Amino acid sequence: MRWSYASQIAILPFRVITATHKFAPTRRFQNMASLSGQCPEINYLDRVSPSEDLRRVHLRTVHDTDEVFDTLLSILRKPALGQDIRYVNLDRSLAGSSIEPPALNIPREVKEEDRKLLEGAVRRAGFAGKQYGMMMNIVTHRPCDGYHGMKRTNDLMHLTQALAALIISVAPNLESLAFPEISAEFESPSECYLMLQAFLERANSNPTEIPYLQNLRDVRCLSNKNLFLSDERFYENYNLADSMKLVGNLPAVETIRADSIEDRYESIDLEPRSTNFRKVYIQGSNYSSSSIAEIIKSCRRLQEFEYSIGGRSSGDGSSPMFIARHLLDALLYHTNTLQRLEMDVDEELSEERPAYWDTHDQYMTGEDPYEKDYTEGRPTSLRDFIVMKDLWIGIKLLMDLARASISKGGSAESPMSLVEILPPNLESLCILGHTVGVNSKHDAQISLLMENRERLPFLAEITGVDACILNAKSVENPDEDVEQDDR
């Protein structure tokens, strides 16, 4: 029996059909519209939007896993289809699951030729031994039905991880990856039964020896979306270091983003200069200065850093300790690369600051991982950021950093002047939380800065000087705020 091109397309999932037009034999068909009479499934192919093709893969529900499994088989049959995938979103967290080995027991109907394709894909993705057997068992089974709550949750967690790993392995042009907390501790890498964790750890440790994940640039940390652990009134307890360790050594990775997180129970633990992230954006969160410092130091060449608090309440009612010296010490490792800094933390800064916060730091220890980079002595001040163009910062933190800069320079008795410590090539300065007449010391420094503005010749824009730009702040009592909003 001879099959036509149209009949072959008709058996594919619709989301795969939408991507096949670019692989059609153009000498025979001038465009895909010519097939519409032979294949009803592609009648509207020329009108589908980019969001309907293979560019974006989403994994959370049972329906998602069925669709992605079909997509995976289509790619294994026609590998060129995998080149379309740019974005993978795994939205199924460990939170709320009991972390146990996979035990899916509802077989999926898989043809023998497709099973062989899956076996080859699992091996090419680096799975061997016990992990190979686990992977094959997971992807050839479906989650249990909705009457088994925790079992279904665990099944979905394992299946989404396994499918995400295989999809990534056949998507050479993948640019963006989003995921929540997906990793746990195991005695050894070979004992790991969380398939995406095992896959990413293996890739991250040997990034130049794999054909996939070579173009991944953007990483987004998702909320865990657990009813008990992710109450949107509160910051989510989230160890960002775990996510950074999974992908931070990949060759093209440059950006990581996270929102509404806090380091509630444990501090960040990252090796200095261990990640390739150049842009770090942490918004509306509740991290301590020591954790922020660890994140900054872990970057090999940091170019942009944004951090802000606000919008939620702490899960345990506490406020993290934020010491300007921690931030300055970490940022000074990147004086030759940091171009943009945004820090909105003033509402967490204490008005009554112990003197040793500027002159002695009992929290920051260990060797300087950037010592060999210094050709003219170790940098000490904001003025040492020679490539910084944009600074968005609260007035209190700016003053604290100025004091810490003077102290680090060995001139504790010298009068402080913002114009003397600001980056020399700064082009844009936004000062948050400054209200004229509230703090005479702040007013004096701002006046002095404006009078001597010509000493910063590239500074074209200063905002927040005359009209106050409000700081972000955490919510003290979310229930009380909701009650007031309802009145």
Automatic annotation (TrEMBL):
UniProt name for this protein: Uncharacterized protein
